[in-house]
Amino acid sequence: MAVDILLGLQWGDEGKGKIVDVLAPTYDIVARFQGGPNAGHTLEFEGTKHVLHQIPSGIFHSHIQNIIGNGVVLDPIVFQVEMKKLQDRGVDAAQNLFISKKAALILPSHKVLDRVSEEAMGSGKIGSTLKGIGPTYQDKIGRVGLRVGDILAADFKERYNKLVERHRKTIEYYGQKLEIEEQEQHFFAAVDYLRTLKLADTEYLINDALNSGKRILAEGAQGSLLDVDFGTYPFVTSSTTMVAGACTGLGVAPKYIGEVYGIFKAYCTRVGSGPFPTELLNEEGEAIRQAGREFGSTTGRPRRCGWVDLPTLKYSIMLNGVTQLNMMKADVLTDFDTIKVCTHYKLPNGELTDRLPHSLEADELEPVYEELPGWRVDLNKIDSVDELPDAFRNYLTYIESHLHVPITIVSVGPDRKSTLKREAVKA
Ligand code: GDP
Ligand code: IMO
Ligand code: MG
């Protein structure tokens, strides 16, 4: 059997949590492979909204095993709060959740490092969620980090102290003091809790499952344009958000990769700093923000909004080998008479291209748009693809004809039920 992967093709927040929850019943395992509490994945069903940060979005299905893979950076404090929230809502996540012993641990001092490093960058800051993601991945790659499995070692406290001393020196270099006594108490309480859970060599779990014919869905976090190699560097996150990240972040050989679901909004958003060619810094952007409730699930920050950008989507599709597309939130565009689609960029020398130049900064390119008629129908009220208005069908087929990948899922509202499955149309 194969591992199917669902991942964001834009700058995150495409609606990954919702679609993983929708697809989950057809899988045996749902696994997160990278990122950490910088992610905020929203699920809505039966009138309740849930936001998950580190726990996979298959958790509401008790028969599905959920795995936090080795590629994830795990904050025990945030994790304990998440588990408690689930418990309060009647979900016993402890019974169907497995955590890789190789996942990296986010310490309280990593979060301080994140903050002081951002403060030092001033106006050039990345706009990090300040959850300690960058500093934790730096320690992992620098081979000094701590991992979940280390909490089982007798000398865990000594190893912890050693790492915190390194961090203290760096923080002093920035002219600040490390004061985390209260956070450390929460951290060690959360570590005690973590020890009671199913810590495992999850690469075996996953490969055994594959060998016994089980179906696995890997849930991406962030999006391809935030990938540390191919995203809008340096305004990116610190992990591989693409298909390759699922191989290294779960321990899956490339030959086992099956379907790749590429998920994107019918428009585009970004939170934090960095270039965004189709950004709308006007009342249209504000209208999308309000209609789409575009405020961060993790930080509450307003998301920057703009039109859909085909060159970036083509790039993400190419790098991930996307086999099916999921279009999200078209219902948000109901009030627009005209929908714009960026098809190309105009470079400073006048050349038109649909390839990404080295920099996506505004002085390096100008987006070129095609205008399509809006549908002016509340898509959220629609229950089947047959009822979709012609103007919206036209929008779907127009995008498919440029991207050459079928849009098999169309989401028209935040609820689980507002999901339309579409026959694969050959583009
Ligand atoms: P993720 O990080 O990719 O899981 O996405 P987020 O949860 O951060 O952001 C997506 C937001 O859009 C959430 O508030 C969802 O409830 C909401 N959402 C998802 N799909 C749709 C949709 O089709 N229409 C509307 N209006 N909202 C949606
Ligand atoms: P989900 O999984 C949107 C952005 C931050 C910042 C940059 C680096 O919900 O789609 P980091 O905290 O990783 O150092 O921040 O990446 N970012 C996200 N933007 N959705 C996310 O996750 C994000 N995770 C990080 O805003 O610009
Ligand atoms: Mg999100």
Automatic annotation (TrEMBL):
Its EC number is 6.3.4.4. It is an enzyme of class 6 (ligase). It is found in: Cytoplasm. Binds 1 Mg(2+) ion per subunit. Its cofactor is Mg(2+). The keyword Magnesium applies. Keywords: Cytoplasm, GTP-binding, Ligase, Magnesium, Metal-binding, Nucleotide-binding, Purine biosynthesis. The gene is purA. It comes from Pontibacter burrus. This is Adenylosuccinate synthetase. InterPro entries: Adenylosuccin_syn_GTP-bd, Adenylosuccin_syn_Lys_AS, Adenylosuccinate_synth_dom1, Adenylosuccinate_synth_dom2, Adenylosuccinate_synth_dom3, Adenylosuccinate_synthetase, P-loop_NTPase. NCBIfam families: PRK01117.1, purA. IMP binds at residues 13-16, 38-41, 129, 143, 222, 237, 301. One of its GO terms (biological process) is 'de novo' AMP biosynthetic process. It catalyses: IMP + L-aspartate + GTP = N(6)-(1,2-dicarboxyethyl)-AMP + GDP + phosphate + 2 H(+).
